[in-house]
From TrEMBL:
Protein's UniProt name: GMP reductase
Provenance organism: Myotis myotis (Greater mouse-eared bat)
Enzyme class of the recorded protein, top EC level: oxidoreductase
PANTHER family in the record: GMP REDUCTASE, GMP REDUCTASE 2
Domain of life: Eukaryota
NCBIfam families: GMP_reduct_1, PRK05096.1
Record text on subunit structure and interactions: Homotetramer.
UniProt keywords, alphabetically: Metal-binding, NADP, Oxidoreductase, Potassium, Purine metabolism
Pfam family name, one: IMPDH
Presence of the UniProt keyword NADP in the record: yes
GO terms classed as biological process: purine nucleobase metabolic process; purine nucleotide metabolic process
Length: 387
């Protein structure tokens, strides 16, 4: 057998036939076999943008004051059929952010908390008994491991008022994760499921059709995430939000923009791009209510903040970094910011101001009133870097 005809090589058939004008092949076509060319890498030349690449264009407005802007949203979820009403900003399910202490404050503002998965059932029950009004504004988080799922079952069975589930993995593209979402939907048909993370429309659609209600969008944009550096994988967050929102809304699903926000303006851009919810990590780190060790150096206070795939987190919860993987997060010291209430008011005030600039009386109207303009500079850097 010739090398070209080896069964271990893909073949393509080329038929020597008559010119295209002929309606039938010759009676004895010559058939030649060639090895199939290997698939080549593809480059998508469409420009993809991040929050830093754009500003919102102001538009005529009839609003007289920021106080006229309504930031409350109401949603009906596709699969759970559950209703939600609140300001759709979520504290990330990181142990330095998604704490019970954070949830107590955020629920006063009708904000949401994805509580990290490392609380025990006893801690959950204690929090639930002392803060029953907060339970409608938080989600119980889980990975895909069997121990995680067992604890999730215990929490949801023990505290039936908790109606939201946050299924969180670094790579939402795996078939295993899709099957896990299906299993959780079967087990909890009436609960609203958040699932991610992904950054492309086709995977948003698959997760929604598999039972998720809200898809977490973002790979690598977080302030303590190093996935893009370690793996080379990611997607600019603004474009990811726009494309994923379009896919989700076509199926009556919803999305969360997860990561990449460093200022109230970025949060507003995420909503303007079509995000139904915005999840914050770094912006809520470093507060009294945040997790993380408080350290003092040269008379200044700092709080540790780290990614959940960092070496710090893996040492804390898994005994270290497994030999087959690498750390995809970093640990930083955030200057202590005091009570998170002040940061929340600043974020909400910024979004209200955005709405007045573009003529949106309600947060619901912001995406319809948004026109992004590409820029090469966000702020005047003359005196300092604006935080």
């Amino acid at each position: 057998m010739s090398p070209a005809a080896s069964p271990n090589r893909a073949l393509r058939l080329v038929i020597d036939s008559a010119p295209p004008s002929r309606l039938s092949l010759p009676s004895n076509p010559q058939i030649r076999c060639y090895p199939e060319a290997p698939a080549m890498p593809h480059i998508d030349n469409d420009v993809k943008l991040d929050f830093k690449d754009v500003l919102l264009r102001p538009k005529r407005s009839t609003l007289k004051s920021r106080s006229e802007v309504d930031l409350t949203r109401s949603f009906s979820f596709r699969n759970s059929k559950q209703m939600y009403t609140g300001i759709p900003i979520i504290a990330a399910n990181m142990d330095t952010v998604g704490t019970f202490e954070m949830a107590k404050v955020l629920c006063k503002f009708s904000l949401f908390t994805a509580v990290h998965k490392h609380y025990s059932l006893e801690q959950w029950k204690e929090f639930a008994s002392q803060n029953p009004d907060c339970l409608e504004h938080l989600a119980a988080s889980s990975g895909t491991g069997s121990s995680d799922f067992e604890q999730l079952e215990q929490i949801l069975e023990g505290i039936p008022q908790v109606k939201y589930i946050c299924l969180d993995v670094a790579n939402g593209y795996s078939e295993h994760f899709v099957e896990f979402v299906k299993d959780v939907r079967k087990r909890f048909p009436g609960h609203t499921i958040m699932a991610g993370n992904v950054v492309t429309g086709e995977m948003v659609e698959e997760l929604i059709l598999s039972g998720a209600d809200i898809i977490k969008v973002g790979i690598g944009p977080g302030s303590v995430c190093t996935t893009r550096k370690k793996t080379g994988v990611g997607y600019p967050q603004l474009s990811a939000v726009m494309e994923c929102a379009d896919a989700a809304h076509g199926l009556k699903g919803h999305i969360i923009s997860d990561g990449g926000c460093s200022s109230p303006g970025d949060v507003a851009k995420a909503f303007g791009a079509g995000a139904d919810f915005v999840m914050l990590g770094g912006m809520l780190a470093g507060h009294s209510e945040s997790g993380g060790e408080l350290v003092e150096r040269d008379g200044k206070k700092y709080k540790l903040f780290y990614g959940m795939s960092s070496e710090t987190a893996m040492k804390k919860y898994a005994g270290g970094v497994a030999e087959y993987r690498s750390s995809e997060g970093k640990t930083v010291e955030v200057p202590f910011k005091g009570d998170v209430e002040h940061t929340i008011r600043d974020i909400l005030g910024g979004i209200r101001s955005t709405c007045t600039y573009v003529g949106a009386a309600k947060l619901k109207e912001l995406s319809r009133r948004t026109t992004f303009i590409r820029v090469t500079q966000q702020v005047n850097p003359s005196f300092s870097v604006v935080s």
